[in-house]
Amino acid sequence: MTTTPVDATATSSWAELERHHREFRGDLRGWFAADAGRAERLSRTAGDLLVDLSKNLATDETLDLLVRLAEEVDLPGRTEAMFTGEHINVTEDRAVLHTALRRAPGTEPRLVVDGQDVDADVAAELDKVAAFAEKVRSGQWTGVTGKPVRTVVNIGIGGSDLGPVMVYEALKPYGRDDLEARFVSNIDPTDVAQKTADLDPETTLFIVASKTFGTLETLTNARLARAWLWETLTAAGAIENSDAARESAVGQHFVAVSTALDKVEAFGIDPANAFGFWDWVGGRYSVDSAIGTSLAIAFGPDVFRELLAGFRTMDEHFRTAPLHQNVPALMGLLNVWYVNFLGAHTHAVLPYAQQLHRFPAYLQQLTMESNGKSVRADGSPVTSQTGEVFWGEPGTNGQHAFYQLIHQGTRTIPADFIAFATPAYPLVDAAGDGKDVRPGADVHELFLANFFAQTKALAFGKTADEVRAEGTAEELVSARTFSGNRPTTSIMAPALTPSVLGQLVALYEHITFVQGVVWGIDSFDQWGVELGKKLALEIAPAVSGDGDVLASQDSSTRRLVEYYRAHRA
């Protein structure tokens, strides 16, 4: 593998795609009418997922050209380089090995990278997390007064929060009534205050998740949580008001996910109760590492291992399936088609499953932190548009909010619809409404009827003649006409199991990777988040009243800080 990325815009396939785009006329109605086999031909399976690509604005020629593009930018070679541990994160000179976190035990040949037996290290850390989770779940691990843990509070931010929160919400049906997880991330003091307000300190366990144990937001919240623990335990008479008692309390009520053991110990956490991961695991790819300790506790190690197995299923599909059958490759390439040729700026992810209500937020970090780049991996400027804004909401909530823009707006907004055949809660509306909802209606079927209807409406729309045929007054016809040709991908699975969730997350990880390879960027660094954090530390003294620092700010920042200081109650 060469270190200099191929310039996709200089390939023959890119030129052919430009020619194809000039001649392209999207016509989903016509395509489906003329081709009875389109849906079958353009559907794919990966693991437990059925992925219907037929309602995308793409012909067989489009897909053929996109696959040629993938070959010309050496997607297969770049994929193998990632899986085998080459340093494809070039700006940090690191391997990218989140896929190693879910390799099957006993896989041969063993994965050894930079002299490190990755398989052995991952297995040892996973076993350590599992053993601790079992201690907490069984009641063997107790708080300082001997009571078992009933609430786990994960303190992290970015990948140390978004992944665990998303998975916890998605897999809640697999949890226990007597064991809850909560998540604190925002440095806004409201977050930690509200998350701890009704907790019993004697049954609360905090997990401080920060690889370096130096993340400002996480460590600030950890100190606030520690102060809350001391104050509430002392006020309840559960511990004495002494340094020794407070030290003991921290030792029983705090653990860490970090490799900075000296800082962990300085905080008061026993380094033996710290769980680590490696610099080849990016934060937004880390939910299946020790960052998932809160999940192993909430759901048990077996469920966590099933989640990892789902990741592995998609990894193996992506690594081995031919490009024409490769779901992550095809979805990533279609995203390139929309961004670089059809002018799309955003991408909606619309899960018809309330359990996935945090999935779009999770994907925002995964996709936009990865591919929001304006320079290529070799430091040269990008030669095409990169990235897109990912967004979305679950199910019918979105229909009553922003679907108007998707259906009748002026922008092309590709959308992924996700649904499951079997619900976690199979409820029936016994009464019905006597009109649209019959008594005894299966509510999940009503829900999925919307899922099926929306992609149909977006694809095929409604013509002016169809509107007139309904008896609509002529002056209202244009307002009630739908153009159609709004592209969607439908993803379905039998149920939202831990394995299926892992498959979904890994699917989007690899989609993101595919786009990055085509654009020639390093999808695994995130220097863009650093500047604002650095400036915040420089401005903080001005906010606290340092006149000299305040005077050195630009006029806008200075006026805003002055407003704050004048109005702070």
Descriptive account of the structure:
By secondary structure, this protein is α/β, with parallel strands linked by helices. It is 48% helix and 11% strand. The protein has helices at residues 12-23, 28-34, 38-41, 60-72, 75-84, 118-138, 159-170, 189-196, 216-235, 243-253, 261-267, 293-299, 301-320, 327-340, 359-371, 395-399, 403-408, 443-460, 464-469, 474-477, 498-519, 530-543, 547-551, 555-567, and strands at 43-46, 49-52, 112-113, 116-117, 151-155, 180-184, 204-209, 254-257, 274-275, 346-352, 389-391, 415-422, 428-429, 441-442, 488-495. The protein has a six-stranded mixed β-sheet, with helices on both faces. Strands 6-5-7-8-9 form a five-stranded parallel β-sheet, sandwiched between helices. The chain has a two-stranded antiparallel sheet with strand order 3-4. The longest helix has 22 residues, at 498-519.
How would you sum up this structure in a few lines?
It contains 24 helices and 15 strands. By secondary structure, the chain is α/β, with parallel strands linked by helices.
Low-confidence spans: none
Helix content: 40-55%
Residue fraction in strands: 5-15%
Number of helical elements: 24
Biggest β-sheet: strands ordered side by side in the sheet: 1-2-15-12-10-11
* SS class: alpha/beta
How many strand segments?
Answer: 15
CA gyration radius, whole angstroms: 26 Å
Distance between the termini: 59 Å
Query: Biggest sheet: strands, sense, closure?
Result: 6 strands, mixed
CA-based shape: globular
Average residue-wise pLDDT: 96
